[in-house]
Amino acid sequence: MRPVRLGMVGGGSGAFIGAVHRIAARMDGQFVLVAGALSSDADRAAASAAELGIRSYDSFHEMVRAEAAREDGIEAVSIVTPNHLHAAPAAAFLRAGIHVICDKPLAATPEQAQQIAEAARASGAHFFLTHNYCAMPMVREARALVAEGALGKIRLVQVEYLQGWLADQPDSKQAEWRADPARAGAGAIADIGTHAWQLAQFVTGQTPATLSADLSSMVAGRVVDDDARIALRYASGAKGGIWISQVAVGQENGLSLRIFGTEGALEWRLPDPERLILSPKDGPARILTRAQDRSASFRTPPGHPEGYLEGFSNIYLDIASIIRRDSRLLDRVPGLDAGLSGMAFIAAAQASSARDGAWVEVGS
Amino acid sequence: MRPVRLGMVGGGSGAFIGAVHRIAARMDGQFVLVAGALSSDADRAAASAAELGIRSYDSFHEMVRAEAAREDGIEAVSIVTPNHLHAAPAAAFLRAGIHVICDKPLAATPEQAQQIAEAARASGAHFFLTHNYCAMPMVREARALVAEGALGKIRLVQVEYLQGWLADQPDSKQAEWRADPARAGAGAIADIGTHAWQLAQFVTGQTPATLSADLSSMVAGRVVDDDARIALRYASGAKGGIWISQVAVGQENGLSLRIFGTEGALEWRLPDPERLILSPKDGPARILTRAQDRSASFRTPPGHPEGYLEGFSNIYLDIASIIRRDSRLLDRVPGLDAGLSGMAFIAAAQASSARDGAWVEVGS
Amino acid sequence: MRPVRLGMVGGGSGAFIGAVHRIAARMDGQFVLVAGALSSDADRAAASAAELGIRSYDSFHEMVRAEAAREDGIEAVSIVTPNHLHAAPAAAFLRAGIHVICDKPLAATPEQAQQIAEAARASGAHFFLTHNYCAMPMVREARALVAEGALGKIRLVQVEYLQGWLADQPDSKQAEWRADPARAGAGAIADIGTHAWQLAQFVTGQTPATLSADLSSMVAGRVVDDDARIALRYASGAKGGIWISQVAVGQENGLSLRIFGTEGALEWRLPDPERLILSPKDGPARILTRAQDRSASFRTPPGHPEGYLEGFSNIYLDIASIIRRDSRLLDRVPGLDAGLSGMAFIAAAQASSARDGAWVEVGS
Amino acid sequence: MRPVRLGMVGGGSGAFIGAVHRIAARMDGQFVLVAGALSSDADRAAASAAELGIRSYDSFHEMVRAEAAREDGIEAVSIVTPNHLHAAPAAAFLRAGIHVICDKPLAATPEQAQQIAEAARASGAHFFLTHNYCAMPMVREARALVAEGALGKIRLVQVEYLQGWLADQPDSKQAEWRADPARAGAGAIADIGTHAWQLAQFVTGQTPATLSADLSSMVAGRVVDDDARIALRYASGAKGGIWISQVAVGQENGLSLRIFGTEGALEWRLPDPERLILSPKDGPARILTRAQDRSASFRTPPGHPEGYLEGFSNIYLDIASIIRRDSRLLDRVPGLDAGLSGMAFIAAAQASSARDGAWVEVGS
């Protein structure tokens, strides 16, 4: 099948997430990267594009215009800029009828989020948000198990996302813009909190009604939050918690999800991503692996460890199918709704924390 | 060395924790059980005592009187009754100058706690509270590491204590009195929450200043709490969380402790009790075992798994030494202060939850 | 029930395994230690006995004579001397009609083993051998699963017992006699190899027909083996392997057992003793815990870690029942047959290794 | 940088390892697949090539001729046919000066291996063998640790490679040719045994001098080996063992490596590939992760799990660099020597097993 022609905004040499998107687009051969506005620095943009052997643009404005005009222009674009620079290019490409694959979170401000929402709703093109963890095989299997009632009625949901890389004031490029409220929108709750929020939502199929948050800035001089402890209440009566931290020394990328229901429990941990522990109320726990995954979201037999990049690629693979008109997969690829829900989560968490943990409704 | 003569109140045949105390008292040969008021049911008391080959009393009143009068009367007594029946015997034995080893929590009500406190302060005898987990070797080593600064300044403390045995309405004797507010004082927060509270306190050497709690009763018809999510704030600026549950299906006895500081982190989990993970801020995590434990709180070489009963026995072993006038060990055996702190924790958690999670000071 | 009166030969202060036997005898209150010939050094024997508050003898000869003559003399004796000193006391006590609980391996030489065998067969008293690991709950459950066919026909059996404490020439008392062929009989294959051999035999219910061994002495100047790699062939067509080492740096006490059959597999590891992984041929692996153990070989609910000492105590508990005439338990407590099989294993392994790994029949 | 033009022999639709090679070639964008003789079935070859959008050939003969003649012909070819079909195409491409990337094992017979060896030695092109596991980051770090002496003098080496997928007679295509001695050369020892052999060799830098093997065919009607237990002796005095099985029910792809030296030990397990346990002789074990890997063989920060496909891609990445004249990397990419050593291993194991486990020299 002919690969989908892809462009990229952001992701010049040295950028972490841009390289990840390129690998994800490449892994299954369903995309070919042909154009990019890879950096706000024109020289760096050109050099990065030359290295990749793609058409280079000085700005996304120019890129939209030129690519939309080409017979062989891009069909989709990946936006991998800092959070405050998602909205403008996303809206522009959507308006040009080009599918948008946007890194999370949706935006740095509600206004920017609104801008994307309007453009997406008005566009015939798709908008995708790369909450990659929900595309890992055992997470998809977890969702299937919940949906079919393996846990009974859900009572407790606990998500943790713990990292330690911001325990001090680092001076890396990646750390820098994340520490600036104007560019990042928020700190850890935006960067990793939205992943945690989406993961719980994806697997349980439920969204908390209210939350109570305690955001902290543990490092002297830091303006944004770097640790948050958030209690959740669901309309169903279930309770939950999200604990995120970027000052949790020794934790590399400790995302985990635990769900307890009336009939059973599930546990999944990113550092051991190919095992899903299912504990029925009675009887021994079971170690599910890809041999039990019914979504077939993998490339190799069980026991050949797949991980982060393969999960990310699963999203790109689904996107390629959707672009080719397989709309059934829309159900499992995060898009505008997930993005808006993440923004509502950030807003509610900040509002609650500002009111010393008062319970706040999560808007939609 | 002559073993210490021990009595017991409660713990008739079929009781879980009474049998545990007897094993703990026996394991190192430092105690000899000689007398008991083992049940409020006189026949059962007599039969249980006969089986153990000890002097039997119909009530603790009678037992205090008789034992205090004997030349070879008991020197210490273990109180293993339901929570609301700790205070009266504890006070009576303390007044008679007999050391008291009391199961946790201290009492079912503040008034009962106060009764014990007054008796303990007025007595020349010791009062001990069996928060057994803090006597496990790797927990003692964790405390030593924190004390010597291996973690730097503590930022985050997280304790979980998850069980699933009350996910339904069980009809066991042990479940029954725990479900009655009058006898238990509270639900999960009293039964396992106080363990979690004391564990964090023991290892960190700090007590949270305020807390915000969300207590739940997840099972229809249950009056007491069976799940609680509690946020903690320390005077030092550290934050913490306690999550306890007795409806966490699939969890047998999931106690765990994680502490993150500016220089390193510690993780300990009861299901794997002989390993303590120390993660320095830089460099690889280290798996500490009893080979690194400096408290020497064990009986066998590293690699010969010791667990719950040995930890419990460590408390009895220390108590025997203290009774024989080694007061240095008082520092690591929980007593009245730990008990009162646990009561203050329960009260604060209930008060906060009643006010929808408002931050409440933890009294002392 | 009246506790069984117990004596001890060996196990003076400082001895490791003597103390373990005393704890095991004490833990469930079924034995009372009343007499001992605790050391070949008369002063040390007396001092140790005084500390324990028991009758002291200068030699086991004297002890047999005196105890057999007393109305309240010992009913059973624990022999915890170095390997070459098992036979003489064991035979003497058996001849006096006193039950013998002997530490493993049976003896240091075939002649000594024969001496015990003759005495045991001629005696009305029981002979027990403390292969303690087979009394741990999940090992007993493993045996039950194999017996009921959960694995189908067994194809592969693999036991490892890895320690690192003899990686150098240590100068501890425990290391010293183990390094002397005359006192230990053999090196690692006697000390831990017989445990491995018995464990496989106990769980599978099968004894290998032939073996091929490669014994090594990895440390300069050491005479006995400290590492052995042994291949096994069963009459059934199953194959197996035993790998033991005492120079495996970093391994504290790494005993593990894996069995693969036509229908399923089992894995048990001493460092995580309360979990048994059962992998059916089809479907996910199951994590069995004491909640699934049908032997009820424990004192606390699942999740309250029990380990080495509790397993050891399970043997003593069964012995007490057997002495009180519950012969049903004889099936699961190792005795003379296990001891002789262990001696045959040692002999075959040494013979095979001497012939460069030739396949050798295991005598019986 | 311009991607290397790649061809493929074998790997038509449905083939497992062909798809893996294609992902590995694609992941880092260093190769572009342009031509293939993807199947011996001409229709299937054409259809598979069409799907991939590449030039199709009916046979490798035709492909060599045509590609060698093109200005823009392939620079390298991946050979992913069954074992007995490696030699002819490998020799042909090498003679044409085209680099060969060959799946393992080298060949099905010594004669075929010889054919490759001669062609490789006579060619200016490179020959690579995809023993992919040695390219995983923590394996490379393990090798570096051994090389710098972190373990001291090596005493013990243990490799296991356990799978369960051939516990019955499966009827998949992949299982079918592997069960035919003419096509596979041998059973499990060829398919996974050579991986185990190479892994030990790669990390330790040593090759065993002699071995003693016991090969089995556990499944009725199977001609080739499906289980093997192999003892190793090194010239240095070190001992080792390889246990491989394809009837180990419940094992998905259980490759593991343990090395014990005089100063420390290493353990690595494929199911948990991003952790390497380093146990110094004294002091606690350390959990090394990619944060400690000095080979930088990864694409994402530590904690973002990479696995099998990324390891495979590391080989392709190195090959691209070597083709572009960075010969420094030749040291860590397996080639002809590894292939011939694997053949010698197979031959020695079969010879020893035929002589009931006699010690046999491993030729070179």
TrEMBL record, chains A, B, C, D:
Signal peptide region: none
Domain GFO/IDH/MocA-like oxidoreductase span(s) in chain numbering: 139-267
InterPro entries listed in its UniProt record: Gfo/Idh/MocA-like_OxRdtase_N, Gfo/Idh/MocA_oxidoreduct, GFO_IDH_MocA-like_dom, NAD(P)-bd_dom_sf
Domain Gfo/Idh/MocA-like oxidoreductase N-terminal: 5-129
Pfam families, A to Z: GFO_IDH_MocA, GFO_IDH_MocA_C3
Keyword list, A-Z: Plasmid
PANTHER family: CONSERVED EXPRESSED OXIDOREDUCTASE (EUROFUNG) (PTHR43708), OXIDOREDUCTASE (PTHR43708:SF3)
Protein name per UniProt: Gfo/Idh/MocA family oxidoreductase
Species the sequence originates in: Paracoccus methylovorus
Higher taxonomy: Bacteria, Pseudomonadati, Pseudomonadota, Alphaproteobacteria, Rhodobacterales
